[in-house]
Amino acid sequence: MSTGPESEQKDDVIVVEDDQGALSLELMPIREGVARGFLHVSPRNMKLAESSRRKLCDELVSRPYSKVLVLDNKHRLLKNALQKSGWRLSRAIPQKASMQCSMTTTYDLPLDDSLLDSSGMRVDTRNTDQMHGIQVDIGARKAWAFYTDDGVTARIIHEAERKLGMMIASNPDDFEPLAGCLLEFLVMAGKSWAVFSMDMGRYIRKYEPMPMWRMVLDRPIGFQHSAQPLSSKNKRDAVRMFSEYYDETKLESMLRLMRMRSDATFSMFLVDGGFVITRLEGDTGLIFDIYVTPGRQGEGLGSELMKCAITQFAGRVSSCYLHTSYPRAKRLYEKFGFKTVYSQLGIRLDEVVVEPPRSR
Length: 360
Prior knowledge:
Shape: globular
Distance between the termini: 26 Å
Strand content: 25-35%
Largest sheet: 14 strands, mixed
Number of domains: 3
Structural class: alpha+beta
Number of helices: 8
Number of strands: 20
Radius of gyration: 22 Å
Low-confidence stretches: 1-8
Oligomer: single chain
């Protein structure tokens, strides 16, 4: 997923600050000429001043990318800032189906010995009752794709220990167009993520999937840190940063905070410019979310929050884990001893493709 060994990657973060707030856009190379951007905006409703808008455009033009895939915020900050200078923004996956498809279940599969799954095995429909699916017409043939609905995420996981989805066809050449049609269907269904097994990567490579890592730390130990638990004194800061991180209104963030505080398994801690949320799951701990606001990145707050999170689990759990798709964050977690236990491939279904003016 990168152009070189991960240890040789250098962070490339565009930071734009003005009286309105701060924007950070981290660029991670995918392949030559193409990068993925991770956008954070503070405050959520920030509007770029003209000088800041020009700086953002100039910074992007100076990078060696003809395409950047990025999730714009709900206020369409990037679209509003870049289109004025001739940049083109379009959905990475269109909101329409390119092939004819219809909804189906595994009970509707024909009894046909020529049908194989994407790993080349005979189709096994045991324990698939929870799956949703589509039937797709590919020329004169038909193919099928099934997924497990997990809220905003569709999981197409077909591994030895788990079966949360599968693709079925009689011709191996049909799996790539089948995967594309499934993604288009999921976009129309309002999903935000599609998560695939690693071995399905060859069928979705054109959509630039990102690696998603599950990382585990055994026997966590305590650290000295400066983070403070959520309280009436810092609640307002928590709501503000929730609004930034989750890209939602402050009312929605207040309701999110109330739900978490009512669940004794959650704990929340803050520093000036960041927060971390942890969760106890029996004898295991989860680092649920961690965030540093754009204007405070690069000051070591991420490390401070990680020390806090790990300390909450010291002596209470045998191991703790987290999920990430950010290479820079992964390197931070590895410094604290986290190790990757498995990987999957994720496609953000509402990303846009940003392309510079043609006169570049």
